[in-house]
Structure formats: C-alpha cells, structure tokens
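As a warm-up, study this chain.
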Amino acid sequence: MENSLSIALANLTSVSVLVFILGFVAARFKSDIRIPDPVYQIISVYLLFGIGLKGGVSLTHSSAQGMVRPVIATIVLGCLIPALAFYSLKYIKNINEVDRGAIAAHYGSTSLVTFTAALVFLDNSEISYEGFATALLTIMEIPGIIVGIFLATRHLNRKVSWGTSLKEIVLGKTIILLVGGLIVGAISGDAGYARVEPFFVNLLPGILALFLMHLGYLAGVRINIIKESGIRLFLFAIIFPLVAGTLGVIGGYLAGLSVGGATILGVLSASASYIAAPAAVSIALPEANPSLSITTSLGVTFPLNLTIGIPLFYAIAQLLIG
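Now compare it with the structure written out below.
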C-alpha cells in the first residue's frame, strides 16, 4: 500500500499531469495555447499508429491461449459498461434517451490518450504488463459504441443508418491505425521495430505532453458547459468511471492478468472516448447534443483518470493480485 501511495504521489507531479493542468489554467485565463489542428491530427496519427506498432511487436511474444480469457473479459466489459452508463443516466431528469445513449457510447468506448498515459505510468514505475494490451484497447473500442447507439435508438420512429455508422467505427482513423499498427508490428517483429523505435518510443513522452497540454486547454474551455448541465451529470462523470474502472480491474483479475494488465483493463473500462465515438455517434444519433458527451468525457472524466484513476486502479489491482 505504501508503494502504491508513493507511485500515486509521483503521478500527480509527473509531466503528463502538470502540463494538462497548465493547459487547463491557460484556458481559464483565456490564453490561447491550443495546438493547430493540422499538428493535432499528426500527433493523433503518431499516437495511434505508434501504440499499435509497439503492441504488434509485443504480440509476437504472447501466446494465443493466454489471450482468450482477457479478450472475453474485454468484450463483456465493452458491452456491460455502456448499458450501466445508460441506465445510470436515467436518474438525471434533464437528459433524454438519445443523449443518454450518446453519452453511454462515449463511456463504453475507450480513450487512446488515457491508455497511453497508463502505459507511460507503468513503464516509469517499472511495472510489467501483457504485450497484447493494445489488442484489448482495439477490441473494447467497438462494442461500447454499438451498445450505446442501440439503446438510444430502440424507441426512435426512424431507421438508423447502421451501415454508415459501423463503417465509421470499423474504418475510422482510430481502428485502422491501431489494427494496421498491430499487423505491421507483428509482421516486422523486433528487428524491424528496432529501426523505428527511437521515433516511436523515445519521442513519445514529449509528444504526449504537448497533446495533454492541448487537451487540458480544451477541458478548461468546456468546463462551463458542465456547470450549465447540473451537478448530477458532473457527479456521474466522476463516480461512474471509478465504478467502471474497478469492474475492469476485477475483470482483469478474473481473466488472469498481471497487476499491470489488470490496471490497464481498469483504465480502459474507466476511460471515455472523445475521438472515435463522437464521429460514429454524430452519424447514428444526429439528434444528440454532442456537448454533453464530449464535455463529460474530456472535461471531467479524462482529468480524473489522469490524476487519480490510473494510480487508483493500480492500487486496486495490487490489492487483488499482489
């Protein structure tokens, strides 16, 4: 427990957390330190493909048999979490069924940046984890969005463009780059990866820091929308990810993952998408208010996971697995 506390304190003073706070404070003082959109897109591609590539190389050292239970646990969590989010939001009176489904889709999906921050946290703390972690990220990305959209559209008097929505989910930038990176990494192996490792590994902490500063700025800009939405939605964005993350850690424990692996599954379960889900939801649920989904996921849940969630889920995993 003492080790978990020291790691948690170190996380709060890490560059990742501090630059996020810097971006948030800058936004509150109306200082525009946003990253230009073309640079934002380049960094997104770098993170998505780089994480996929590293995961693909690690897959070559993993056994298919060892992946079965974690994959099943990930799929179950990917379906369960958006359903829990949808019915939890029922107690917030000013949110209709479509918006509940949209928010549930965001919380059922995953956050690449939160996942990356968790990997950096574990690497810096010298905590090992399974090589197929990126595959779990990719797997959880899809069912959460589908379940959220399904729950939102059950009572709508119109046809949902499932074909277009599924195409956006499966062929969108997030899945293509992650899966593409996994395939390239698995084929090229250690020898091929060694040639590009300085670019995708050595530069990652610095590039991630810039990205987090930008996200901190966006969170600071959007925080006023949370105030307008009421205290219950704010509490949901804090309490629900902590519950979902704990379920994820328990799922990792039951699936036989290591402490690091269970921590990652907890982080994935607690995270909420603000890249893949918004695109798919905007197609399937044009009636939904995107401000509610993106603001809760980016303005509240993301900083919560970055500062408290990641070390908390590690502590829970350590308590369960030892």
